[in-house]
Design brief:
Elements lengths: L2 E5 L5 H10 L3 E5 L6 H5 L3 E2 L3 H6 L3 E4 L4 H9 L4 H4 L5 E4 L5 H12 L4 E4 L2 E2 L1 H7 L2 E6 L2 H11 L3 E8 L3 H29 L4 H8 L7 H12 L8 H18 L4 H15 L11 H8 L7
Parallel strand pairs: 1-2, 1-4, 2-3, 4-5, 5-6, 8-9
Antiparallel strand pairs: 7-8
Length: 295
């Protein structure tokens, strides 16, 4: 059993922390929105600050919304850096900028500590079921040390490369997911407007080369109109911003990523920042003057 710090207990962080507690670890917890009662009831220990979490633990995990949040928690007043001592390990499981991640790692390494970036994919369902895909950037030695913790939270765990490479992999994941959501949205809007039953179209497509997890899970959401997150559009927007900013910096074009981002932007303009990202279909429905499943 290890003393583990966990900072950030939102939709994803709360079940991830719960799985570490179930795995027999002592968890010291902090979150901007407060520590959920169910985690303290399960044995987690609430702390007043990120600094206090860090002082009481050997491995500190972050699960935060965006790059500025990670920087503030790491290096701000009463942050992680103030509580570090040599030999501790910081694991950032947030989805943030690969370039900033490399800088954060250097600063933490300069304090005599190890740094791992380990963003995840799988959403709330994967977090609860401990089946997350975990994309890791760091040294092989540190990865080997913390892998047993990852195995309590996920199934597909890959050391991609050095610091920042885990975040780069997550950006790639989010490009693919967004474009697949867009493709499924277009197909189901087309089918429905043409007068076909979108549920039966989806069922048929699931047996062919067009089959995918997006068609399976999010196609069903689009048909049943279940757009509670899940994974919020505003967070996927943030991830595509990372992709497009990186593309500009590297001098390359991601035209379909830009289109997917514009569809998310249209949803947000319609009040949908907190809809599940499968609700991208609503932007296409608005342009078609037709809702999937309505004849």
């Amino acid at each position: 059993m290890s003393n583990i710090g966990f900072i950030g207990l939102g939709i994803m962080g709360k079940p991830m922390a719960a799985n570490l507690i179930k795995g027999g670890h002592a968890l010291f917890l902090n979150s901007r929105s407060g520590v959920p009662q169910e985690l303290t009831a399960a044995g987690g220990i609430a702390c007043d600050s990120a600094k206090q979490v860090t002082q009481r633990t050997d491995i500190i995990i972050l699960m935060l919304p965006d790059t500025p949040d990670v920087e503030k928690v790491l290096f701000g007043n009463n942050g992680v850096a103030e509580g570090l001592s040599r030999g501790k390990t910081v694991i950032d499981m947030s989805s943030i900028s690969p370039m900033e991640t490399k800088q954060y790692a250097k600063r933490i390494n300069g304090l005599g500590c190890e740094y791992i970036d380990a963003p995840v994919s799988g959403g709330e369902v994967g977090a609860k079921a401990a089946t997350l895909t975990i994309m890791v950037g760091g040294t092989e030695a540190t990865f080997a040390k913390v892998k047993p913790l990852f195995e309590l939270m996920g199934k597909n765990i890959t050391l991609v490369g050095g610091n920042g490479d885990g975040q780069t992999c997550k950006v790639c994941n989010q490009i693919i997911v967004a474009l697949n959501i867009e493709a499924v949205s277009e197909a189901l809007v087309f089918a429905s407007k043409a007068g076909a039953d979108p549920a039966k179209v989806r069922q048929a497509l699931m047996g062919g080369f067009a089959a995918s997890r997006i068609l399976e899970v999010h196609g069903e959401r689009m048909i049943k109109r279940t757009f509670n997150p899940g994974f919020r559009i505003e967070l996927h927007q943030k991830d595509l911003n990372l992709a497009l900013a990186g593309a500009r910096a590297m001098g390359l074009s991601l035209p379909n990523t830009a289109t997917a981002q514009e569809l998310f932007n249209a949803c947000v303009a319609d009040g949908g920042a907190k809809w599940d990202h499968s609700a991208m279909v609503r932007a296409l429905e608005k342009m078609a003057s037709h809702e999937v499943g309505k004849q």
